[in-house]
Each structure stands twice: as structure tokens, then as C-alpha cells.
Design brief:
Blueprint: E1 13-24, H1 64-76, E2 80-81, E3 84-85, E4 88-91, E5 101-104, E6 111-112, E7 115-119, E8 125-137, E9 141-143, E10 151-153, E11 160-166, H2 173-189, E12 202-212, E13 221-226, H3 229-248, E14 256-261, E15 266-272, E16 282-283, E17 290-291, H4 300-305, H5 311-320, H6 325-333, H7 335-347, H8 351-371, H9 379-382, H10 385-396, H11 402-412, H12 417-421, H13 424-430, H14 439-452, H15 454-461, H16 467-478, H17 485-496
Parallel strand pairs: 13-14
Antiparallel strand pairs: 1-11, 1-12, 2-6, 3-17, 4-5, 4-16, 6-8, 7-8, 8-11, 9-10, 12-13, 14-15
The structure holds zinc ion (ZN).
Zinc ion (ZN) binds next to loops.
Length: 497
């Protein structure tokens, strides 16, 4: 069959994608005991106790901070918060689950519905609606790569884990990846999870099927163990193609769990999927049923009032200041720069100067940051924000040129305590960077520049007007930034007549 005869199958199928995302919550202690929740603990089996090790006769207690965290997420995505909730036992045996069951929520999740705005592959603004968000406990971490045996670390067993399930409304890989990244940003903004995928603090599972228009949905396949959003996107693209080719060649998609191998770019079968009733869910008799409205710490009004500014609100604010889209995203998604910029907005009142500061942050300051090997600090530790604000204000009052400002940023970068304690203007004076209003100073430099560039002066006089800017550049260089370029240009014009 030559290529022209091939049916155009790639456009006929509609992908239906839903995501299940697990996030380890940032809390002081585990979900049902007082063991520390420390994701950075290097020694195995340190943070364990009879409760999370499921010794007979022990009783779990609820972690209020974990519940609050999930409520905050629910409020941030405009979801419905359940008033009644309870915990269920999800029964299965595996060495990473010491009780023989995982405590989860089945019939009464804490949060229903909600939505998150993202962009699809075509760049359209679309909403991903959520089915539910519930709270459960994490399993232990097992490793099988040390030899002919398995090792197990129970430090992670019992850490509060949030599970979020989207509706099956996602239709392309970009939309899925964007949803994941937006959720990650939201969790970090709310400070409820560090959501680091490499550390397994955020884990994505994809449910995916395809069907033709007018036909019932196809059989869904689950893809697990995706350790980055890029990998999730690639696995979706591969799986859409695999299912298409399978159906077109007369085969059937079976309900199963698949893994993804980044080296080959392919998904592979792992196991045939269990049904919910295989887990024999039933309410945990050891844990109290919960009426959210009866517990002061779960007061929704006060939790909502204390939410930080959310990413979308920041986007609107920065866009209304006239910032470019890429600068908006930099400040919204990278809190290292975002926190600094928020401070500037408080310290600089003039909107023009606020916008001007963006150029220096995204070019000069970001350029310096790129040279740093390790960033563990605040941007303020590299360049004192009060001094930077002074620089911006000095540009505003035309006491500092753009060239002078760039030099000042380099001078102040990672300055010692003494330098950081000085006024930026005093340092600029010392360095000769403050623009001199003294006409004598400017005229002497102009004279020198005209004398040193006779060819350019002659060519300019014969009509090559573009050479004026060349000469302005020479004057600025000679003046080491202490000259106002607009003033220099005017003075040069007169001197050349
Ligand atoms: Zn414990």
C-alpha cells in the first residue's frame, strides 16, 4: 500500500485523558502519628513508631495540618468542600504497606469539583475540571536495585498524601503537561507541598482512551510511574498512536496499567488493572468521622481569607502593569524572582519605574544569577533590594544613565556587608557614575571625542547622519556613564554645526 492510499486515521480519533496526581503534603508530622514528616531524611527507618508500623492495639489520630492543606487547595481551585468526610481502608497486601491496608478516602472525599485554567496545544485558554481531591497516607519506599533482595524504608509510610483526580476532559498532551505544571505551581504558592517530582513528592498517572466521533469512549489504559511532566506528555503522545494503530489493525485495547520507558519512548504493559471492589474498601473503625464545619481549625472563611495571592491573580496584576508575557510567567512561576519583584512593587510607587525595573531584573540581574553555581538564597542576598530600588529611582531622576545602572548592578553584586550598608547614590558618586549636570565636564569630553574621530566628524558633516549615534556612544564611553545620553546628543549636534 502506498502512502496516498492510507486512511487519514490520525485526525479521526478523539483522545480522552484524565489525570491522577499524588502530592506529598508539607506537614510537621505524619498523617496518623507524631513521627516527623521529613522528606530529606537520609537514614532509613528513623521516623517510625508503633502506629505507622501497624503494631497491634495502636490507634491512629488525625493530622489537622494535612486536612487544612487539602482544604486550602480546594478553596484555591473554587471547589466544593464536603462537610461530612470519613476515612476508608483500602485493603491490599504489599510490603510497602505495613497495615495490610492503606487509609484513604473512598465515598466521602474532602473536596469535589473545582477547576484549573490552562492552555491546550493550540494555545487556547481551557478549563480542566476536577472530579475530587482526597487525603490518604503514603506507602513506604522500596528499592530492588541493591542486589538479590529488596530493601524497604518506612520513613515515608504514613506521610500525608493528597490525591487529585481530574475529569476526563483533557484532549492533548500539552494540556495534560500544562495542568500538571499549573497544579505544581499552585501547591508551591499555597506552601502545602514542595511538589518536587524528582523526589517523588509529586507523582502523575495518566488515564487515556481514544474513540471516533459519535462512538462510545474506548477502553482506558493507565500509565504509571511518570517522573516528569515532559515524560507524561511523551507517554500520552506515544499511547495515542499505539491505540490508533492497534484499533486500525483490527486489535482491541485492553484495560491495563502500563509503564513508560523514556529511553525507547514507548509504553509497556505492567499488569491488568484491578477494580475498586478488589480493594474491599470499608470505613476505618479507628478514625472519627469528621464534620468540617464543627472544627474551628477548618473554618473555611478564615482559611480562604488567609490564602496567598494565587498565580492567576498575579498574572492579571502583572499583565495590567504592561509586562511582557514571558516576564509575567517568570515572576509568577519562579518565586526567586517573583518575591523580589513583589517587594519592588511595594517600594517603588511610580508605575513607569516599576516596569523599568523589570528590564534590569530579567537581563542584568538574571544574567548575573546564571553565573552562580548554587542558588539557595533570596535574590536580595545577591543584590540588596533597597540599593536596587535606589538605582531605579536614580534613573527616574535622570541622575543615573542606563549604562551607569548596569555598572552599578555589577558593582553591588554579592557585595560585602560594608558595601551593602552604603547608599547606592554614594557608591555611584565614588565610581563617577552619577550624571554630571556640569556643562564644562560634558563639553570637554565632546571636544576630545571630536578631536579623536576626525573622519567620522567629516562624514557626518557630509550627510552621514547615522554617525551622530556613533559619536554619542563615544561620548558616553568617555564619560563612563556619568552623562545623560539625551543631553549628550543635543550638545553634540550643536558642537558639530
Ligand atoms: Zn509513626
Amino acid at each position: 500500500m502506498n502512502t496516498e492510499e492510507k486512511p487519514t486515521l490520525s485526525t479521526e480519533f478523539i483522545p480522552v485523558i484524565g489525570l491522577e496526581i499524588h502530592a506529598e503534603l508539607k506537614t510537621k508530622t505524619k498523617m496518623f502519628c507524631s513521627c516527623l514528616n521529613d522528606p530529606l531524611e537520609r537514614n532509613p527507618n528513623i521516623h517510625i513508631c508503633p502506629i505507622c508500623m501497624a503494631h497491634p492495639g495502636t490507634l491512629p489520630t488525625l493530622n489537622k495540618q494535612a486536612i487544612q492543606n487539602v482544604l486550602k487547595v480546594g478553596l484555591a481551585v473554587n471547589a466544593e468542600i464536603a462537610d461530612f468526610t470519613e476515612w476508608d481502608r483500602k485493603n491490599y497486601f504489599y510490603p510497602d504497606i505495613p497495615k495490610g491496608y492503606q487509609i484513604s478516602q473512598y465515598a466521602y472525599p474532602l473536596v469535589h469539583k473545582g477547576k484549573v485554567k490552562v492552555k491546550d496545544a493550540k494555545g487556547n485558554d481551557v478549563e480542566v475540571t476536577l472530579t475530587r481531591i482526597h487525603l490518604e497516607e503514603d506507602t513506604a519506599r522500596s528499592s530492588h536495585d541493591k542486589g538479590d533482595f529488596s530493601l524497604i524504608d518506612y520513613n515515608r509510610a504514613g506521610i500525608p498524601l493528597m490525591e487529585l483526580v481530574t475529569d476526563a476532559v483533557i484532549y492533548d498532551s500539552v494540556m495534560a503537561g500544562n495542568f500538571g505544571r499549573e497544579l505544581q505551581l499552585l501547591l508551591r504558592t499555597l506552601d502545602v507541598s514542595d511538589a518536587n517530582m524528582e523526589l517523588g513528592q509529586l507523582r502523575v498517572e495518566v488515564n487515556i482512551s481514544i474513540h471516533k466521533e459519535g462512538e462510545p469512549w474506548g477502553t482506558k489504559v493507565e500509565i504509571k510511574n511518570l517522573n516528569s511532566f515532559r515524560v507524561a506528555e511523551k507517554s500520552i503522545e506515544y499511547e495515542i498512536q499505539r491505540q490508533k494503530e492497534l484499533i486500525e489493525s483490527g486489535g482491541k485495547v485492553i484495560q491495563e496499567t502500563r509503564g513508560y520507558d523514556d529511553a525507547t519512548g514507548k509504553t509497556f504493559s505492567q499488569r491488568i488493572k484491578e477494580n475498586a471492589n478488589d480493594y474491599r474498601y470499608f470505613p476505618d473503625p479507628d478514625l472519627p468521622k469528621l464534620y468540617i464545619s464543627k472544627i474551628p481549625e477548618f473554618n473555611l472563611e478564615s482559611l480562604k481569607a488567609n490564602l496567598p495571592i494565587l498565580p492567576n491573580a498575579k498574572r492579571e496584576k502583572y499583565t495590567s502593569l504592561g509586562l511582557k508575557n514571558e516576564d509575567v510567567e517568570m515572576f509568577v512561576s519562579d518565586s526567586f524572582y517573583g518575591r523580589y519583584f513583589e517587594q519592588i512593587l511595594k517600594l517603588v510607587k511610580d508605575e513607569k519605574l516599576q516596569k523599568l525595573s523589570v528590564n534590569y531584573i530579567t537581563s542584568d540581574i538574571a544574567g548575573q544569577v546564571k553565573k552562580e553555581k548554587e542558588i539557595k538564597t533570596e535574590l536580595h542576598d545577591f543584590i540588596n533590594i533597597d540599593q536596587f530600588v535606589e538605582i531605579i529611582n536614580l534613573i527616574g531622576t535622570e541622575e543615573l544613565s542606563s549604562r551607569g545602572a548596569k555598572d552599578m548592578i555589577a558593582v553591588l553584586w554579592k557585595g560585602d556587608e560594608e558595601l551593602r550598608s552604603k547608599k547606592a547614590k554614594d557608591i555611584a558618586e565614588e565610581k563617577g557614575l552619577i550624571i554630571k549636570a556640569d556643562p564644562e565636564f560634558l563639553n570637554n569630553i565632546i571636544k576630545l571625542v571630536l578631536k579623536n574621530n576626525p573622519t567620522q566628524v567629516d562624514d557626518y558633516k557630509e550627510g552621514k547622519e547615522a554617525l551622530l549615534m556613533y559619536l554619542v556612544g563615544k561620548v558616553m564611553k568617555e564619560g563612563k556613564g556619568a552623562i545623560n545620553p539625551a543631553v549628550a546628543q543635543e550638545a553634540l549636534k550643536i558642537a558639530l554645526k
